[in-house]
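The record is given unchanged here:
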Amino acid sequence: MSSNIELIIFDFDGVLVDSETMGCQIWSDVFARHGMNVPASVVMEKYTGKTGTLICSLVEQEYGYHIPEGFLDEVNETTESVMAKELQTVPGVLETMPLFSVPVCIASGSRPKRLNMCLDVTGLRPFFPENTVFSSHFVKNGKPAPDLFFYAAEKMGVVPEKCLVIEDSSSGIIGAKAAGMKVFGFLGGSHCTPARGVQLKESGADLLFDDFTKLPELL
Protein backbone atom coordinates (compact mmCIF):
# COMPACT_ATOMS: atom_id res chain seq x y z
CA MET A 1 0.00 0.00 0.00
CA SER A 2 2.92 2.37 0.66
CA SER A 3 3.33 3.21 -3.06
CA ASN A 4 -0.25 4.52 -3.12
CA ILE A 5 -0.04 6.62 0.05
CA GLU A 6 1.48 10.09 -0.13
CA LEU A 7 -0.03 11.57 3.05
CA ILE A 8 -1.21 10.23 6.42
CA ILE A 9 -3.98 12.30 8.00
CA PHE A 10 -4.34 11.69 11.73
CA ASP A 11 -7.35 12.46 13.84
CA PHE A 12 -6.10 13.90 17.12
CA ASP A 13 -8.20 12.96 20.16
CA GLY A 14 -8.15 9.22 20.75
CA VAL A 15 -5.55 8.58 18.04
CA LEU A 16 -2.48 10.66 18.94
CA VAL A 17 -3.49 11.70 22.47
CA ASP A 18 -5.43 9.61 24.97
CA SER A 19 -7.99 12.31 25.64
CA GLU A 20 -11.42 10.88 24.88
CA THR A 21 -12.29 9.49 28.32
CA MET A 22 -11.09 12.70 29.95
CA GLY A 23 -12.88 14.92 27.45
CA CYS A 24 -16.21 13.10 27.66
CA GLN A 25 -16.17 13.33 31.46
CA ILE A 26 -15.52 17.07 31.26
CA TRP A 27 -18.48 17.53 28.92
CA SER A 28 -20.70 15.55 31.29
CA ASP A 29 -19.47 17.53 34.31
CA VAL A 30 -20.18 20.89 32.64
CA PHE A 31 -23.64 19.71 31.60
CA ALA A 32 -24.26 18.74 35.24
CA ARG A 33 -23.18 22.18 36.48
CA HIS A 34 -26.06 23.59 34.44
CA GLY A 35 -28.61 21.02 35.61
CA MET A 36 -28.39 18.80 32.54
CA ASN A 37 -27.95 15.05 32.83
CA VAL A 38 -25.84 13.81 29.92
CA PRO A 39 -23.65 10.91 31.13
CA ALA A 40 -20.06 10.67 29.97
CA SER A 41 -20.89 7.26 28.48
CA VAL A 42 -23.50 8.89 26.23
CA VAL A 43 -21.07 11.62 25.17
CA MET A 44 -18.58 8.87 24.33
CA GLU A 45 -21.03 6.74 22.38
CA LYS A 46 -22.87 9.41 20.43
CA TYR A 47 -20.82 12.59 20.20
CA THR A 48 -17.10 11.79 19.91
CA GLY A 49 -15.53 13.13 16.75
CA LYS A 50 -18.06 15.94 16.42
CA THR A 51 -17.50 19.66 16.91
CA GLY A 52 -18.54 21.33 20.15
CA THR A 53 -21.17 23.38 18.33
CA LEU A 54 -22.70 20.25 16.82
CA ILE A 55 -22.68 18.44 20.18
CA CYS A 56 -24.58 21.31 21.78
CA SER A 57 -27.10 21.34 18.94
CA LEU A 58 -27.64 17.58 19.12
CA VAL A 59 -28.10 17.63 22.91
CA GLU A 60 -30.70 20.37 22.57
CA GLN A 61 -32.54 18.36 19.93
CA GLU A 62 -32.33 14.99 21.65
CA TYR A 63 -32.77 16.02 25.30
CA GLY A 64 -34.84 19.18 24.99
CA TYR A 65 -32.31 21.15 27.05
CA HIS A 66 -31.48 24.79 26.42
CA ILE A 67 -27.72 25.30 26.18
CA PRO A 68 -26.96 28.65 27.84
CA GLU A 69 -24.78 31.35 26.33
CA GLY A 70 -21.12 30.82 27.18
CA PHE A 71 -21.56 27.06 27.72
CA LEU A 72 -19.14 26.02 25.00
CA ASP A 73 -16.56 28.52 26.24
CA GLU A 74 -16.84 26.90 29.68
CA VAL A 75 -16.31 23.44 28.20
CA ASN A 76 -13.30 24.65 26.21
CA GLU A 77 -11.70 26.47 29.14
CA THR A 78 -12.20 23.51 31.49
CA THR A 79 -10.84 21.09 28.89
CA GLU A 80 -7.75 23.17 28.23
CA SER A 81 -7.05 23.61 31.95
CA VAL A 82 -7.31 19.88 32.70
CA MET A 83 -5.45 18.69 29.61
CA ALA A 84 -2.57 21.12 30.13
CA LYS A 85 -1.83 19.23 33.36
CA GLU A 86 -2.91 15.64 32.67
CA LEU A 87 -2.90 14.85 28.94
CA GLN A 88 -0.66 12.06 27.63
CA THR A 89 -0.05 10.59 24.20
CA VAL A 90 -1.51 7.25 23.19
CA PRO A 91 1.05 4.49 23.95
CA GLY A 92 3.54 4.05 21.13
CA VAL A 93 2.90 7.36 19.41
CA LEU A 94 6.06 9.29 20.32
CA GLU A 95 8.44 6.48 19.37
CA THR A 96 6.58 5.67 16.13
CA MET A 97 6.12 9.15 14.64
CA PRO A 98 9.74 9.43 13.38
CA LEU A 99 9.33 6.20 11.39
CA PHE A 100 6.87 7.39 8.74
CA SER A 101 8.36 7.96 5.29
CA VAL A 102 5.52 10.14 3.97
CA PRO A 103 4.24 13.53 5.17
CA VAL A 104 1.76 13.60 8.05
CA CYS A 105 -0.86 16.07 9.23
CA ILE A 106 -3.76 16.38 11.69
CA ALA A 107 -7.47 16.81 10.88
CA SER A 108 -9.44 17.31 14.08
CA GLY A 109 -12.77 18.58 15.29
CA SER A 110 -11.06 20.37 18.18
CA ARG A 111 -10.45 24.08 18.03
CA PRO A 112 -6.99 25.30 16.97
CA LYS A 113 -6.06 26.79 20.36
CA ARG A 114 -6.52 23.46 22.16
CA LEU A 115 -4.84 21.45 19.41
CA ASN A 116 -1.73 23.60 19.52
CA MET A 117 -1.62 23.62 23.32
CA CYS A 118 -1.90 19.82 23.44
CA LEU A 119 0.80 19.36 20.81
CA ASP A 120 3.13 21.47 22.91
CA VAL A 121 2.45 19.80 26.28
CA THR A 122 2.67 16.22 24.96
CA GLY A 123 5.89 16.58 22.98
CA LEU A 124 4.19 16.04 19.61
CA ARG A 125 4.95 19.51 18.25
CA PRO A 126 8.18 18.51 16.41
CA PHE A 127 6.14 16.15 14.22
CA PHE A 128 3.32 18.60 13.51
CA PRO A 129 4.29 22.20 12.71
CA GLU A 130 1.35 24.61 12.82
CA ASN A 131 0.92 24.50 9.03
CA THR A 132 0.13 20.76 9.23
CA VAL A 133 -2.59 21.11 11.90
CA PHE A 134 -6.12 21.48 10.51
CA SER A 135 -9.27 22.06 12.54
CA SER A 136 -12.90 21.73 11.52
CA HIS A 137 -13.14 25.40 12.57
CA PHE A 138 -11.42 26.13 9.23
CA VAL A 139 -14.27 24.64 7.14
CA LYS A 140 -18.04 25.01 6.79
CA ASN A 141 -18.99 21.52 8.00
CA GLY A 142 -17.18 19.33 10.53
CA LYS A 143 -17.10 15.53 10.56
CA PRO A 144 -18.94 13.43 9.41
CA ALA A 145 -18.90 15.77 6.40
CA PRO A 146 -15.79 15.31 4.23
CA ASP A 147 -14.93 19.05 4.18
CA LEU A 148 -12.03 18.89 6.64
CA PHE A 149 -10.38 15.96 4.88
CA PHE A 150 -10.60 17.70 1.50
CA TYR A 151 -9.18 20.85 3.10
CA ALA A 152 -6.24 19.03 4.70
CA ALA A 153 -5.38 17.19 1.48
CA GLU A 154 -5.53 20.42 -0.55
CA LYS A 155 -3.32 22.31 1.90
CA MET A 156 -0.81 19.44 1.93
CA GLY A 157 -0.85 19.21 -1.88
CA VAL A 158 -2.01 15.59 -2.12
CA VAL A 159 -5.02 14.22 -4.02
CA PRO A 160 -7.63 12.49 -1.80
CA GLU A 161 -7.13 9.02 -3.28
CA LYS A 162 -3.49 9.11 -2.18
CA CYS A 163 -4.37 9.90 1.47
CA LEU A 164 -4.68 7.49 4.39
CA VAL A 165 -6.75 8.64 7.37
CA ILE A 166 -6.36 7.25 10.90
CA GLU A 167 -9.58 7.66 12.91
CA ASP A 168 -11.17 6.37 16.12
CA SER A 169 -14.74 7.62 15.60
CA SER A 170 -17.57 6.70 13.26
CA SER A 171 -18.03 10.31 12.22
CA GLY A 172 -14.39 10.48 11.20
CA ILE A 173 -14.54 7.19 9.30
CA ILE A 174 -17.67 8.29 7.44
CA GLY A 175 -16.14 11.67 6.56
CA ALA A 176 -12.89 10.15 5.31
CA LYS A 177 -14.71 7.61 3.13
CA ALA A 178 -16.92 10.38 1.75
CA ALA A 179 -13.73 12.18 0.76
CA GLY A 180 -12.61 9.12 -1.21
CA MET A 181 -9.73 8.31 1.15
CA LYS A 182 -8.50 5.06 2.64
CA VAL A 183 -9.19 4.96 6.36
CA PHE A 184 -7.94 2.75 9.19
CA GLY A 185 -9.93 2.51 12.41
CA PHE A 186 -7.70 2.84 15.47
CA LEU A 187 -8.66 1.14 18.73
CA GLY A 188 -5.59 1.82 20.88
CA GLY A 189 -7.01 4.55 23.10
CA SER A 190 -8.13 3.76 26.64
CA HIS A 191 -11.73 4.58 25.66
CA CYS A 192 -11.98 1.87 23.00
CA THR A 193 -14.15 -1.22 23.49
CA PRO A 194 -14.97 -4.20 21.25
CA ALA A 195 -18.28 -2.48 20.49
CA ARG A 196 -16.39 0.51 19.09
CA GLY A 197 -14.49 -1.81 16.77
CA VAL A 198 -17.77 -3.13 15.39
CA GLN A 199 -19.01 0.45 15.02
CA LEU A 200 -15.92 1.56 13.09
CA LYS A 201 -16.07 -1.44 10.78
CA GLU A 202 -19.75 -0.83 10.07
CA SER A 203 -18.94 2.81 9.34
CA GLY A 204 -16.59 1.74 6.54
CA ALA A 205 -13.08 1.37 8.01
CA ASP A 206 -10.81 -0.48 5.59
CA LEU A 207 -8.83 -2.02 8.46
CA LEU A 208 -8.83 -2.01 12.28
CA PHE A 209 -5.74 -1.96 14.51
CA ASP A 210 -5.08 -1.34 18.20
CA ASP A 211 -1.29 -0.92 18.47
CA PHE A 212 0.09 2.37 17.13
CA THR A 213 3.59 0.91 16.80
CA LYS A 214 2.27 -1.51 14.15
CA LEU A 215 1.12 1.26 11.79
CA PRO A 216 4.38 1.51 9.78
CA GLU A 217 4.11 -2.22 9.03
CA LEU A 218 0.48 -1.87 7.95
CA LEU A 219 1.47 0.68 5.33
